[in-house]
Design goal:
Blueprint: E1 7-11, H1 17-26, E2 32-36, H2 48-64, E3 69-72, H3 75-88, E4 93-94, H4 97-107, E5 112-117, H5 119-124, H6 126-134, E6 139-144, H7 148-154, H8 159-170, E7 180-184, H9 192-199, E8 204-207, H10 208-222, E9 236-239, H11 243-254, E10 260-262, H12 265-268
Parallel strand pairs: 1-2, 1-3, 2-9, 3-4, 5-6, 5-7, 7-8, 9-10
The structure holds D-glutamic acid.
D-glutamic acid (DGL) is lined by residues 11-13, 15, 41-44, 74-76, 117-118, 121, 149, 185-187.
Length: 269
């Protein structure tokens, strides 16, 4: 039965787990197959063509696992490859840029929205395009924060160091007017408390994770693909990088123990 198949969720590393956590919360009956391309992370500084190639490779792998839907839980990969993936596969595909944009549109009162993300996401202009398509009157400030992904992937727990890196990364946007700030990178929700400290309580932080899970839920419902039978799905987590390191970050973030398998895509073909 197709509805019992898994939802394939991909990211360049651990960041997409923010989406997994929301899917667990909103759709506890769904089975997840997660793919974190940790060995090639970060995608942010890479050319869009390369990110597209990596994303298509992962999609090919997920298709071999008979997933019923694909979630590109990576902003950089969504910006570079969402349209291409949609053209390529017959199952539903969801990215994170539209859900994140919708969350900000829903929240803003002043129409002043900030977006932070990787170089690839910010350079692509994908957030501005999506936001302006819906409301051309919005005033958008976008800014790339390349130091934040390595900070999260390193798993550093020293709060003084985290605060310092976050403060330096966000300095240039602190004088900009905004009532909403889109965390346009899947890794940022993992350090959102520090980002909030730096930008102040008056700015609402918006992550795409919650809206993305809602969109997944809506699409599965409309396509009659919601899993109504499975109560304890066995999720699978793949990483191209170090299993222990991935497991440590993932279990801390998800608050549960998981099984992680190392995968080398060049050997799968
Ligand atoms: N997952 C990426 C994103 O959301 C961030 C990490 C990376 O640069 O690969 O843009």
């Amino acid at each position: 039965m197709e509805e019992q198949n898994a939802i394939g969720i991909l990211d360049s590393g651990v960041g997409g787990l923010t989406v997994v956590k929301e899917v667990f919360r909103q759709l506890p009956r769904e089975k997840i197959i997660y793919f974190g391309d940790t060995a090639r992370c970060p995608y942010g500084p890479r050319p869009a063509e390369e990110v597209k190639k990596f994303t298509l490779e992962i999609v090919d792998f997920l298709l071999t696992q008979n997933v019923k839907m694909i979630v590109i839980a990576c902003n950089t990969a969504t910006a570079a490859a969402l349209n291409e993936v949609k053209k390529k596969v017959k199952i539903p595909v969801v990215g994170v840029i539209r859900p994140g944009s919708l969350a900000a549109i829903k929240h803003t009162r002043t129409g002043e929205i900030g977006v932070i993300g990787t170089e690839g996401t910010i350079q692509s202009g994908a957030y501005e395009k999506t936001l302006k398509q819906i409301n051309p009157n919005l005033n958008i400030t976008s800014y790339a924060c390349p130091t934040l992904v390595p900070l999260v992937e390193s798993g550093i727990e020293d709060e003084t160091m985290i605060r310092q890196v976050v403060k330096e990364a966000l300095q240039p946007i602190l004088n900009q007017k905004m009532d909403s700030l889109i965390l346009g990178c899947t890794h940022y929700p993992l350090i959102s408390q520090y980002i909030q400290e730096v930008v102040g309580e008056q700015v609402k932080l918006l992550s795409s994770a919650e809206e993305t899970a809602r969109e997944v839920s809506t699409i599965l419902h409309y396509q009659n693909l919601l899993n109504q039978t499975e109560n304890h799905p066995k999720h699978l987590f793949y990483t191209t990088g170090d299993v222990d390191h991935f497991k440590q970050i993932a279990e801390k973030w998800l608050g549960r123990t998981i099984e992680v398998t190392h995968i080398d895509l060049s050997k799968v073909k």
